[in-house]
UniProtKB/TrEMBL annotation:
Record PANTHER family: ABC TRANSPORTER ATP-BINDING COMPONENT, ABC TRANSPORTER ATP-BINDING PROTEIN ALBC-RELATED
CDD domains found in the cross-reference section: ABC_DR_subfamily_A
PROSITE patterns reported in the protein's UniProt record: ABC_TRANSPORTER_1 (PS00211), ABC_TRANSPORTER_2 (PS50893)
UniProtKB keywords: ATP-binding, Nucleotide-binding, Transport
GO molecular function ontology, one term from the record: ATP binding
UniProt protein name: ABC transporter ATP-binding protein
Length: 286
């Protein structure tokens, strides 16, 4: 499978923060969820990928091209959506199309119009009168109307109601049906990523903690819940992370079914991405 995006040993230093040797890939035909707490380095990484800030070291390759040397060619083929609309409030959707068709050679008026109808976005209403959900839909429609091969999304569904988020997630799934497309989706809403992501990349304190298949995470990993007495009997080297709570302990294990066979008397639940992230950040390890 071809990688549309390859990030290798990417580093960037600031006085109070350091991004260190960040590496991950975005394969074609996939959605990669990019997760981490506030300040972990997600936005810095996205800015480095987009060449909005200069890297100290490492490399970013998009469509087989260097993101600095071939920036113009690359940006013709990507769409970017941030957590809020940056279109001027006095513009109308038609004004956005008129501007962007002069920027992108592959701008598709018919696709733009079709998406406006699909999402019930009024073409002649000024943007400041749009709801937040409508503004986000317009941003996404504008990002895909020039037929990009890669979408880069930074909290694109944050603050939206469940119905709007569902519509947008469906659009993302449609987008990657063509195996030549892919999405890098940075989000705090891990429930959305559980629905659509193929892979999950977790960054913490400027370093990649894991870069794994989503199915491996939520179907293979497990959360063990037990009292103090049972926890003391467990072999700590078999636990990825553990954390004490008011009822005893909870611990993350690599293989839920295997652990259940070895410890039939213990409760081992499936693990959500939120729980996995929390245990990695707050938990202890052997």
């Amino acid at each position: 499978m071809e990688n549309i995006l390859e990030v290798k040993n990417l580093s960037k230093s600031y006085p109070s923060f350091q991004l260190s040797d960040v590496s991950f890939t975005v394969p074609s035909g996939s959605i990669v969820g990019f997760i981490g707490e506030n300040g972990a380095g997600k936005t810095t990484t996205l800015k480095l990928i987009l060449n909005e800030i200069r890297r100290d070291s490492g490399s970013v390759t998009i469509f087989g091209m260097d993101n600095i040397k071939d920036e113009r060619k690359i940006k013709e083929q990507i769409g970017v959506v941030f957590d809020e609309s940056y279109f001027h409030g006095e513009f109308k959707a038609g004004d956005i199309a008129a501007i962007l068709k002069r920027i992108y050679k592959s701008w598709d008026d018919a696709l733009f119009e079709d998406c406006l109808r699909r999402f019930k976005l009024p073409k002649n209403k000024i943007i400041k009168e749009y709801s937040k959900g409508m503004k986000m839909k317009l941003s996404i429609v504008s990002a895909i109307a020039h037929h990009p091969r890669l979408l880069i999304l930074d909290e694109a569904t944050s603050g939206l109601d469940p119905i709007v988020r569902s519509e947008i997630l469906d659009l993302f799934l449609d987008f990657i049906q063509d195996e030549s497309h892919a999405i890098l989706f940075s989000s705090h809403l891990t429930g959305d990523l559980e629905k659509v992501a193929d892979y999950v990349t977790f960054i913490h304190e400027g370093k990649i903690v894991f870069d794994r298949s989503k199915d491996d995470l939520i179907y293979l990993c497990g959360i063990v819940k037990c009292d103090t007495a049972d926890f003391q009997k467990l072999e700590k080297s078999k636990l990825i992370r553990w954390r004490k709570n008011e009822c005893g302990y909870e611990a993350l294990v690599e293989n839920r079914e295997e652990f259940k066979r070895k410890h039939p008397g213990l409760v081992v639940d499936t693990a959500t991405i939120d729980e996995i992230m929390l245990l990695y950040v707050k938990g202890e390890k052997a």
